[in-house]
Amino acid sequence: DDELQTDGNRSGHFRNGELGLAPTNEDVIRIIAAQLAEIGDQFDKEIQGRVVNDLVRHFLNENLSKEEITLHMSRVVRELMRSIPSDMEQERAMLVLAMVLTKKIVNTVPSLLHRVFNTTLNYMNQQLHNYIVEMVSAFKQ
């Protein structure tokens, strides 16, 4: 029921005359996001323009289904995983790569924002949902 505001803050809802926020630990989420962003900055330099341009072509192809584009994104992430240091947790690297690819595609063709965001979200839900839940849970403890 929460809304995400453009500045990244959650909006509150009035309950019985008082402003109420969802029972999430926003500090935990901010810390995890900062850690992922730091890793993403490192990966950003490693991703070549041709990889991004290839993904852009797939996203621009209206004949491809959401599932086909998600599969292609998954293949690209797996290929990029080969260049990731082996000491990094595989799921974390996959998560960051998907987010960095999303950023690079949208920076290249901003009109693809909606389609790319939905595809990335679909990819993360299919491939990394349990990892994300475990990561947040472990950090709270």
Describe, in plain words, how this protein is organized in 3D.
With 141 residues, the protein is mainly alpha-helical. It has one domain. Helices cover 66% and strands 4% of the residues. It contains 6 helices and 2 strands. The chain has helices at residues 26-44, 49-60, 66-81, 90-108, 113-127, 129-140, and strands at residues 13-15, 18-20. A two-stranded antiparallel ribbon has the order 1-2. The longest helix is centred in the first third of the chain and has 19 residues, at 26-44. The model is unreliable at 1-23 (pLDDT under 50).
Please supply descriptive tags for the structure shown above.
141 residues; mainly alpha; two-stranded antiparallel sheet; 66% helix; 4% strand; disordered N terminus; BID
Backbone structural class: mainly alpha
Dominant shape? globular
Annotation field: number of helices? 6
**Spatial separation of the terminal alpha carbons:** 25 Å
Number of E-type strands: 2
Are there runs of 5+ residues with pLDDT below 50, and where?
Answer: 1-23
Please describe the biggest sheet, giving its number of strands, its sense, and whether it closes into a barrel. Answer: 2 strands, antiparallel
User: Looking across the biggest beta sheet, what order are the strands in?
Assistant: 1-2
Q: Per DSSP, what share of the residues sits in E-state strands of 2 or more residues?
A: under 5%
Using only C-alpha atoms, the radius of gyration works out to 17 Å
Order of helices and strands: EEHHHHHH
Round the mean pLDDT to the nearest integer and report it. Answer: 80
- Tally of separate domains: 1
Helix content: 55-70%
